[in-house]
Write a structure and sequence with these properties.
Layout: H1 3-8, H2 13-24, H3 27-39, H4 43-55, H5 63-74, H6 79-89, H7 94-110, H8 114-128, H9 133-151
Helix pairs in contact: 2-3, 3-4, 4-5, 5-6, 6-7, 7-8, 7-9
Length: 162
Amino acid sequence: MSIFDSLFRKPSPDYDVGIAAFKKGDYALAAKHLRPFAEGGNAEAQFVMAEMYAGGLGVPQNMEISRELVVKAAKQWHAGAFFLLGISSLIEAPKEAYTLLYTSAALSTARGNPAAAEEPRRMLSELAKRLTGGEVAEAERAAREAISAAAKGGYPTLRPLI
């Protein structure tokens, strides 16, 4: 099974209960059901729990735990995690932010969710104005190479991206 297949498998009814609770705003119930999946390595559960820790939703607010969970989800190629990491890099590391946002847009599109790619693409066009043409090309190449290796089951290092 590829890494992409593992991201979208529904692990169990408890997982579904957790996601439904999160969508309804019952964050304590969501945390109860999603925490074991996040701890077990489920990228979507990690991403949702990161949102909960960032906002103090059903769990104590903790930006450090939130960031750790976002990085774990990104290491499993979660498009939303790349988006959040890209946003957090905009000021201090614009070239890295471009690579992360490009990855988010490409993953969203490849997974059949082009609407999720709209915001990263909008940000890319603005960010490109702050970079040289060579920096943009280098960032896009790095993202394409990493995605290609992951699609082939290569699990490339995310060091240049995260």
